[in-house]
Automatic annotation (TrEMBL):
Signal peptide: none annotated. This is L-serine ammonia-lyase. It comes from Capronia coronata CBS 617.96. It is found in: Cytoplasm. Its cofactor is pyridoxal 5'-phosphate.
Length: 362
């Protein structure tokens, strides 16, 4: 393991970023289904298998570069996440030569813990029955303990940090260069948990000159819809708990900055049921051979059964819509089959509702 003080000033300036440029592919299958041009931003190909590599990776990278050269204590990165943020922190830190540990809620499944360890986590600690208590334990007990052992503990928040939004914004820079005809998309669809990805998308749109022109649909699942409820009530809402299967969207309260961005006139929060998100996962696997978790399926769901026509006024075959395929590690074929057994009937009922609305409009 490389210690921080082994880097020279020149080395620090040239450390390779711990995320990659991902493809933007036009999907002929989903375009036909949705009735417009659907482009998939394949963030599932990131090193951690989710978009989190951008934001978390940028925060890790920035933290390394901002360290005082006279402080020779070894860096150790700490995250509180039972999912993609923790995996992104471990992946980014270990790729850059540093230790990383994660505190997860006691409800975190053994499969996720194994993935964190396989990615190179120095330690995976289970504590508390929710992210709030895991995070509290990390900040109040684990990091101070690391400091007492002579380490420099660096706290990595899952979503609420400007460096995370800045990292996520690089996605829009790529989209601008990748879009055909040198034009902007009509809309971007992204999933929302705490709001790090959504905040980055909004920042990126402003940076490339598309702010105010591109519609943005931040998507949540019912039972994890803190952003939509906040916008509806005109104030930040804290959910009493998360009841959705899309636990990666399980922030009971979005970041203040995400709430502020969601009040722009170009933003329309969307809430889908678990059945819609789950159905999109198995349909997406059939249509594109891409396996994603339900938190990602929530966004992909807008391409099916006329949902986009319901939300995007003036949708036509020439409309261009980018769906951020945010990926995620909390999925397997066995789990997908469980979803299908549980939600197929309800998903068909909901699909019929949107199809009826589509026929009424036409």
């Amino acid at each position: 393991m490389i210690e921080r003080n082994q880097y020279s000033v020149d080395d620090m300036a040239s450390i390779k970023q711990p995320w990659i440029e991902t493809p933007l592919l036009e999907s002929s299958v989903l375009s036909k289904i949705a009735g417009c041009r659907i482009f998939l931003k394949l963030e599932n190909l990131q090193p951690s298998s989710s978009f989190k590599s951008r934001g978390i990776g940028n925060l890790v990278l920035k933290s390394i570069r901002e360290q005082d050269p006279s402080d020779t204590r070894p860096l150790h990165f700490y995250s509180s996440s039972g999912g993609n943020a923790g995996l992104a922190c471990v992946t980014a830190a270990t790729r850059l030569g540093y230790k990383a540990s994660v505190v997860v809620p006691t409800s975190t499944d053994e499969g996720t813990i194994k993935k964190l360890r396989a990615a190179g986590a120095t330690e995976v600690i289970s504590h508390g029955d929710s992210w709030f208590y895991a995070d509290q334990h990390l900040r109040e007990v684990v990091i101070p303990g690391a400091e007492q052992r002579g380490e420099k503990g660096i706290y990595i928040h899952p979503f609420d940090n400007p460096a995370i939004w800045e990292g996520a914004a690089t996605m829009v820079d790529e989209i601008k260069t990748q879009m055909p005809d040198e034009g902007s998309p009509d809309a971007i669809v992204c999933s929302v948990g705490g709001g790090g990805l959504f905040s980055g998308v909004m920042q990126g749109l402003d940076r490339v000159g598309w702010g105010g022109r591109v519609r943005v649909f931040p998507v949540e699942t019912l039972g994890a819809d803190s952003l939509a409820q906040s916008v509806q009530q005109g104030r930040l809402v804290t959910l009493p708990g998360i009841t959705s299967i899309a636990t990666s969207l399980g922030a009971i309260r979005v970041a203040d900055h995400a709430f502020k961005e969601a009040r722009r006139p170009t933003v329309t929060p969307v809430v889908v049921e678990d059945a819609e998100a789950a159905s999109a996962c198995w349909r997406f696997l059939d249509d594109e051979r891409i396996l994603v978790e339900s938190a990602c399926g929530a966004s992909v769901a807008l391409a099916y059964d006329g949902r986009l026509r319901h939300y995007l006024e003036g949708l036509s075959p020439d409309s261009k819509v980018v769906i951020v395929v945010c990926g995620g590690s909390k999925i397997s074929l066995d789990l997908l089959n469980e979803y299908r057994q549980t939600y197929q009937q309800r998903s068909e009922e909901l699909a019929g509702k949107y199809s009826h609305q589509k026929q009424s409009v036409s």
